[in-house]
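Fig. S4 source data, part A: sequence.
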Amino acid sequence: MHELVRADAPPCLSAQAPGWTETFVQARQVNEAVRFRWPSDPCYQAIRATLLTMSVHHCAFCDGLLGRTSRETVEHFQPKAAFPQCAYDWGNLYPCCDVCPDLMISHTPIGGNHLGNERDEHETKSL
């Protein structure tokens, strides 16, 4: 995994993440099968654009060039299924190609957590 120098979170994420997180965590407590989704497409696009700028349009995991060899997606470092409280956390979001999650590449940070393979609804659409 490649280190990113984090810019500030997009204002929409800073403002909305606490409420979105609470809603998602509560929904997962009631039904573990609840799938993650971005409640706001404009905010998702702002997050994606900021992450791509930070990474100079490279996948944070394999360093592949995004937009040429792969779609530009956002991946959660800590899996949403195991860590729903981190689903909207700016520090848990990375620019990613669509190959790394499909290959289930394991990227282990210092804390020993692994990249999950649960895909966002935005990641299943062409962008």
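Fig. S4 source data, part B ends here. The radius of gyration is 14 Å.
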